[in-house]
Here is the input.
Amino acid sequence: MELETIAADGDDCTGSSPAVQWSDLPDDLLGMVRCRVASPRDCVRLAAVCRPWRAAASRQPAPPAVPQLLLSRYRPSKTKHICGPDNGWVLRVPEKAKNAKFVGSYDGGWVAAIRGCELVLVNLFSSAEVAVCPPVIEGRSRHVSIAKVIFSAAPTSSRGCILAAITDDCLNVALCKVTGVSGWTTQGCAGCHHKLFADIAFCNGDLYALKLSHKEVIKFKISMKEDGSPMITAAYELSIQICDGPTRHDDLVPYSKYIVELEGKLLIAVRARWLTNHEPFFKVFKLVNTETVEAYDQKWAEVTSLGNYALFLGPVRSKMVQVPVGAERQGLERNHIYYSQLTCSMEKKLPGDEVYSIRLDSDHRMYCKKDQTIGDGLERTGYYIMGWDHSGMWLDPPTL
Here is the structure.
């Protein structure tokens, strides 16, 4: 392929020099191009131009991988819409993930997906697969219906990876070891329907569950059986002082709460109508020790700065991401909350101030929109998904 050249006034280029080849572009120029490539799709396209480009790209520092929102995780299809900070694209999923229900994800493009009664772990970008036991309770034939799966480590980790899941009824937590031979073990929540689990997270080797009704947290102690499979050996509620605030019973608007780990500490994010006559927004709280002799050992302290981190929130995966230098070129901002929100509405009209939007089937759309500044030190951007059945899941693509 040749580069077309245009002569400046007074220059005669006819027969003066051979045409420049695309493959002859210098490495430093290709490096500048690569650093400005935002999506994993475009990284692959850049490397696929020719061998010299692919070799030059491999020698350049890779741009930071920015979390992407995968849409329609419940809908059976061969392709999925992927949405970044400033654009969207379509990804063709591997054969193993086609027509599957996505219930979890991990760094590098890994997803957990349900196909019938089978649980599969597959990388959406490399098509690699890792074996895992079917979701059946150990020693019984009862199938476990899974709503969400989290990973303790990469599924290919030599140290081993534990999967933790919330069951569809939100009343139980189930555990399984990747590549293990035993089935799943479960642990129920002491209590009745008002003790539902909202979210789970690993932190310092233990598993924590956030209750749906309040900011209460249950700690599960995990031990290994003789065959190497995990099991919960203890569960108790942390002694946390719960501050007053709006709850899911105070408003009819969607109320969401998630739990995440940051540098060995637990944080929760709660979306509610914190201000009268204002749209709901997320607040973030960090679990800290009480400084005085009180009836409680810990309390939730509001976070007003995320520093060099960005917080990604969603019903399947929530994660703190350290924003590296150069990530602003991919649209990723520090001290920022990015969240997905299913509108559960048949409204198809866009608000008019969205960053961008993409069209889904049935004329529904996903639009990305920055929230109005609250003045509490944090900025927020929502990925609003119209309709009822296009729920999203944050996906961490590999560094390409």
The chain is about 5% helix and 40% strand.
